[in-house]
Amino acid sequence: MSEVTNPKRGRPGYDQAAILEIAVLAFNEHGYDATSMSKLASRLSLSKAAIYHHFSSKEELLELALDHALGGLENVITQPGATTGPAIDRVAHVLRGAVLVLAERLPYVTLLLRVRGNTEVECNALERRRVFDRFVATLVLAARDEGSLRADLDAGVVTRLLFGMVNSIAEWYRPNGAADAARLANDVLTVALDGLRFRD
Amino acid sequence: MSEVTNPKRGRPGYDQAAILEIAVLAFNEHGYDATSMSKLASRLSLSKAAIYHHFSSKEELLELALDHALGGLENVITQPGATTGPAIDRVAHVLRGAVLVLAERLPYVTLLLRVRGNTEVECNALERRRVFDRFVATLVLAARDEGSLRADLDAGVVTRLLFGMVNSIAEWYRPNGAADAARLANDVLTVALDGLRFRD
DNA sequence: GTCTATAATTAGATAGAC
DNA sequence: GTCTATCTAATTATAGAC
Prior knowledge:
The structure is a homodimer.
Chain A: H1 16-30, H2 37-44, H3 48-54, H4 58-78, H5 80-83, H6 87-104, H7 106-113, H8 120-145, H9 155-167, H10 178-194
Chain A binds a DNA duplex through helix 3.
């Protein structure tokens, strides 16, 4: 991926993606605002000026990182599984897809989930997240109307609790292969749809 | 509560709690690091120096806020409902209590949930959170052993998903009376224990 | 592609008057 | 309890050499 782990015949420098990867890890560890360009440069064993050769500003690092996370999520809701078939299956597809994207692009999605809307870049990212959220809210309503989901709870609350459960995975999940993420996605669907109570 | 909303015969100033309340709101809106003492002073219509009369440092504001959130949560797990009776009831008690504390001390708990462990103050808060988390994890295991909760899922994953659902409430809930919070707590327990699937 | 040096601004915090 | 003025250190970002 990066020229550091896969160097092209001794060329020493970082490319954009390699710097971004390390920057995102640092942002998640200490917070975006608490991670100064100096600290980032130390972590890369580079000077600050070298980073500015690859990115025009600190905020551009954030923008590209958020775009990578959002691209993954938006991809989930444009797949056929999210737009065709019974609503309950579409809900399951999107929940599963969100967990898998979260696991695959963990640091990027983690960063996205912590954005508060301080700047224009952050506001744009939040708006793209809201489009995703609204899509899922609509699916939940449809699954309720078709009789697949219980109707005695507020659909908005239900949707938010579902997202809360999925998004919170970013706080503790550490990747361990694709099979691991697939099992986690199944567990989420089991808890969400069937609950934790023992049934014989 | 504060001398601003309930002034003592025209004394104009803020007291510690009144400043803290507004500071916590600002920290949640823009992030702790992104909220400078200058911005905070503007928001209070005070000078920076006036804030330093009430608090010795920016971090002391954070420390007192986190302590208020943690005190509420720790209170939940020392109540009789959390330590006596069937494990499934104790799990329900703690989940319900966590939701109610979150609703009642919303800005303080919101701030707590965003702490990453950058400083000693943050690390201490995280450690107190972990004590709470471990208590709940133990309860979930006990409820499983007594046959109340399903045993086909990893108990650690289940506990984290439960917390994820509860904690995510801070991202969207806006208080509307105690009855509102009690209903929300019931909804959380319904989803967590019985799931969303329609059952006739 | 990376460096050193530095500009311009802002941060947290303090001194001392009222 | 609050103010103005100020300190020092750290911040983002740029200039120009190699």
